[in-house]
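Exercise 4. Each item below gives a protein and its sequence. For each, produce the structure-token representation.

Item: 3'-5' exonuclease (Banduia mediterranea).
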Amino acid sequence: MSKKYEVFISVDIEAAGPIPGEYSMLTVGACLVEDPARMFSCAIKPVNDRFVPQALEVTGLSMAKLAEEGLDPEMAMRQFEAWIASTLDGQGSPVFVGLNAPFDWSFVNYYFHRFLGRNPFGFTALDIKAVYMGATGCSWHDTRSSEIARRVHPNSKGDHNALRDALYQAELFRLVRSMKLS
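Answer:
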């Protein structure tokens, strides 16, 4: 029996507030860490009207516009699941990679289970901040993306657009993984 190879998928979301269920996931962006040209992105209709004003301010997203133009949450998660499957070539095992993965993971996991009854990522996520902390021995405070970028010098940067942030995170993860331990 052969072991499945890991397919690292950088995922970022933007949300209307701090927790799933009470607040909506508004956008999701993803790309393959090793082949960032293979990407996925969609906007999602809110599941309710609740939002934290600062969450919308930082993203520039509009609940009203998303209610009109976003995908139905079930359709969004079906499309995301299909995209994930298309990256695996029938052999790979998807690994969710995020920067502050607990936040993004909580929404993605909740939405997959609520709308599809399953999560193609399984039940785990890999956090770039934790990997960086382990590689460098830095404090948790020094795992902010700006601190990581100061050390690894990425070409891109994040801007609270889910797809662009997923691409940025993929670059950070590649750079962190290539760090030599001293």
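Check: Residues 3 and 91 are 9 Å apart (CA to CA).
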